[in-house]
Design a protein that fits this description.
The protein has a domain of 251 residues: Type I PLP-dependent aspartate aminotransferase-like (Major domain) (Aspartate Aminotransferase, domain 2). The protein has 15 helices and eleven strands. Strands 1-7-6-5-4-2-3 form a seven-stranded mixed β-sheet, with helices on both faces. It has a four-stranded antiparallel β-sheet with strand order 8-9-11-10. By secondary structure, it is of the alpha/beta class. The model has no long low-confidence stretch (mean pLDDT 94). 42% of the residues lie in helices and 12% in strands.
């Protein structure tokens, strides 16, 4: 073949064969994932030192790419899908989610408008309505009402969008036109995720105008403290407009009293946003829906299927009770996006529901997960994870060496060694360095606290029991030193 005839593309038949090999690689990886140290053992720049300084002038064969995945990339991976991953929060995936992602990439649609791929929009709307039913969320979040749901990248994006909608509602759309006036005040728990502070930065509210409200002994927001702070700000001529309440804080999975906070928000005319990023999945089980008491009064609600619902990152579910408020805050329609379907008002154009214009077919993987597991299958695994965490909690309670930092009802256990911060931190460093498991820490009551987060797809009782043995052994070694 002459250079003039060369297309440089991967021919479709070669793509077929390479795709088979890629799936085989992923399957082999998942089958052998327990053989790898959970926390990557490489040093800074180890990966880059193995990569050529210059990009290849001529294309390379797929054999070399797949070989480098094993030899170069894999040692630099921290294995979030390992059943021995107990750090941060679950970011679990599953085969049906992976297959949905492959199909999304294969279709390669840009679903910014209904017209640019109707299925991309309509499957998403339908799946979001399924989630309303599955979690027992208020009907006002369903698409046949004034509300609706949309898939965002992360809970951080959802919080930002809620903040922007609240900002435009309280200013009558003037903030988008003239910018902020420095008087708008937002509120959240002192234990809330840092994304709320970041959203205030991006939205022009300013971090000095974010009030962090005191928490109780369980690290949940105090409604009376919120009310008092709102009244104090109003007395200063400021304009309270937004409160974010947490159904499961990042540090300790604390559950804010949403119903009481909703009463405070309603009495002062504030937008109430509920962040249930990780814990929200638990509500698929009716016995855990106590976490959402009061959500029926919220203006917006969000949780991450990409944390604990076997749907790979990124996939955040964001619901609003009044979609017009969200759309009015984010919609802009240049001439090149005008089309008959949009003008009819009969369709959703999800580009108006979030920050970016472009969007991919993320609903496919969520659709596949729900169809593969069914509600019963998802409930089974959620209950198993919670039961494992509660067993682990009881082992801590019964231990002479460890103690609970705070009691939690779901799948996170916060605990520490009785001999203090130094021993507790040494335990974490030992187990993470050994590679058999991975967990992270926080500070509660200004004390170094370990977090045992249970929710990975393949985690079973044997993994949790082995982790407890490792923690005990590391504790004995640290205490002896």
């Amino acid at each position: 073949m002459s250079d003039d005839d060369k297309t440089y593309h991967m021919e479709l038949e070669a793509f077929r064969q390479n795709a088979y090999r890629t799936v085989d690689w992923v399957v082999d990886y998942l089958a052998n994932i327990e053989s790898y140290p959970v926390l990557s053992q490489v040093e800074p720049n180890d990966i880059r030192r193995q990569l050529p300084a210059e990009p290849p002038a001529e294309g390379e064969g797929f054999d070399a790419m797949l070989r480098d995945m094993s030899d170069i990339v894999l040692p630099g991976i921290t294995h979030w899908q390992s059943p021995n991953f107990f750090a941060f929060f679950p970011a679990n995936s599953s085969p049906p989610a992976i297959l949905g992602e492959i199909l999304s990439a294969g279709l390669g649609v840009q679903g910014m408008l209904w017209a640019t791929s109707p299925a991309c929009t309509e499957v998403e709307t339908h799946v979001m309505d399924w989630l309303v039913q599955m979690l027992g969320l208020p009907e006002r979040y369903a698409s046949h009402t004034d509300g609706g749901g949309v898939i965002q990248h992360t809970a951080s994006d959802a919080t930002l969008c809620a903040l922007l909608a609240a900002r435009e509602r309280v200013t009558g759309g003037q903030a988008n036109k003239a910018g902020g006036n420095g008087k708008l005040i937002a509120y959240t728990s002192s234990q809330a995720h840092s994304s709320i502070e970041k959203a205030c930065m991006i939205a022009g509210i300013g971090t000095e105008n974010l009030r962090l409200i005191d928490v109780d002994e369980n690290y949940a927001m105090r409604p009376a403290a919120l009310d008092a702070q709102i009244r104090a700000d109003q007395a200063q001529g400021l304009v309270p407009f937004f409160v974010c309440t947490c159904v499961g804080t990042t540090s300790s999975l604390a559950l804010d009293p949403v119903a009481e906070i909703a009463g405070v928000a309603e009495s002062h005319g504030l937008w109430l946003h509920v962040d249930a990023a990780m814990a929200g999945t638990a509500a698929i089980c009716p016995e855990f829906r106590f976490i959402n008491e009061g959500v029926e009064s919220a203006d917006s609600y969000t949780f991450n299927p990409h944390k604990w619902m076997f749907t790979n990152f990124d996939c955040n579910a964001f619901f609003v009770a009044d979609r017009a408020a969200l759309i009015n805050a984010l919609s802009i329609l240049p001439e090149y996006l005008r089309n008959q379907a949009t003008e009819s008002g009969a369709v959703f154009d999800y580009r108006d529901w979030h920050v970016p214009l472009g969007r991919r077919f993320r609903a496919l993987k969520l659709w596949f997960v729900i169809r593969h597991y069914g509600v019963n299958g998802l409930q089974h695994h959620i209950r198993e994870h919670v039961a494992l965490a509660q067993d682990f909690k009881q082992w801590v309670i019964d231990s002479d060496e460890f103690e609970l930092a705070v009691d939690t009802p779901l799948n996170l256990v916060c605990f520490r060694h009785r001999d203090g911060d130094g021993v507790t931190e040494a335990i974490m460093q030992t187990v993470n360095r050994d590679g058999g498991m991975y967990l992270t820490h926080t500070r509660l009551g200004d004390r170094f606290t370990l977090r045992m987060s249970i929710g990975q797809t393949g985690t079973q009782r044997r993994h949790v029991a082995k982790a407890w043995e490792q923690l005990q052994a590391a504790g004995r070694a640290a205490a002896d030193n």
